[in-house]
Amino acid sequence: MTHLTRRAFLAVPPVALLVPVAGGAVRHEPTSVGDSHRGPAAIASLNGLRAAERAYALMQEGYDLADCVVQGVRIVEDDPNDTSVGLGGLPNEDGVVELDASVMHGPTHKCGSVASLRGIRNPAMVALEVLRRTDHCLIVGEGALRFARQMGFVEENLLTESTRLEWLKWRENMTKEDDRLDDDERDAPVGKTFVEPGKAAAMAGAAGPVKHHTGTVHCSVLTKAGDVSSCTSTSGLSWKIPGRVGDSPIVGAGNYCDNEVGCAGSTGRGEANLANLSAFLIVESMRRGMNPAAACLEAAKRVVANSKERRLKGPDGRVNFDLKFYALRKDGAYGAATLFPGGKLAVCDETGPHTIDALHVYDTPM
Ligand code: GLY
User: Fold this and answer.
1) Distance 247 CA to ligand 1 centre (A)
2) Which atom of ligand 1 lies closest to the CA of 245?
3) pLDDT at 197 (0 to 100)
4) What residues line ligand 1, using a CB cutoff of 6 Å?
5) Please, what are the domains in the chain?
6) Phi, psi of 26 (to 5 degrees)
7) pTM for the full model?
8) Residue 220 CB neighbour total at 10 angstroms
9) Do 81 and 88 touch, CB atoms closer than 8 A?
10) CA 39 to chain centre
11) Is residue 269 a contact partner of residue 321, using CB atoms and an 8 Å limit?
């Protein structure tokens, strides 16, 4: 007889579940390998596998669950190579990094957020101070920076050499009507140019247009006692208009938890979440009995249905942006959904850190 490990068992492909609904009818609910998990867990966006592992470890050590998610997310904020979060996040149109983050604490149903915060690499930690030390939920811009300074955070330049060059390339190639030379307008130097070490790529640049990027890290935890907490942190949309705030610091949009139900978070095009309050929708769907992945898929479909503007559609009629949803239910079930195939959920539970596939709205890649 073949022996199935728990991990191998969980890897069995999902099937649709028939859920009884009012009037004797049944609803076909998509299922995920995370539906059957029970007990403590930490989940995260795929760039947050280390965050989930750290949050899970801190939970075992008895830390408050808001500290667990914030310290997990901090690993990604501190990573200069993740250009979607914290240090090394891609900047706004002026070349300045502006960060957004929120944290929610299930047992007290308190939240803390900061938005458009400049010069502080760990916005989630500042958000936690808002949660713990103020009566407010959200502090933005200059006020957030002043608050962070008062809390003892140290300012620094969050641009790395690599993100500065990426911004410069975007800025120079934005239009031929300005006085900055596009890549194809510059003559090659005659001989070598003298540049500081590490800055040589500035003149060469890579070919092709520089796209807008959205990226973010989300992490949620569930303790053995059934308490939840969640955190989302981001540098937001690259090249954004200064002061633009995305979904990550807006409770109910890019992050939400309710201790009676569970947590949800999101990464991707924040404007779509702001217009649909997706994280709140996911938690409320789980409250009505949906599995986490199915609830995420429902939110993804809602976003697609509400994306009515022509500019948000590709030639094939599908939306031209991506969005990913992550959810963790109070009993330990977890799941994720995306618009396009290929998405994954990072998980740390009693089997250790691993990933599972996300459900998706469309069957083929963007
Ligand atoms: N989801 C991150 C943002 O749009 O700001």
Assistant:
1) 5
2) 5
3) 72
4) 214, 216, 234, 236-237, 246-248, 254, 267-270
5) 1-30 (no CATH), 31-158+213-360 (3.60.20.30)
6) -125, 150
7) 0.91
8) 33
9) yes
10) 24
11) yes
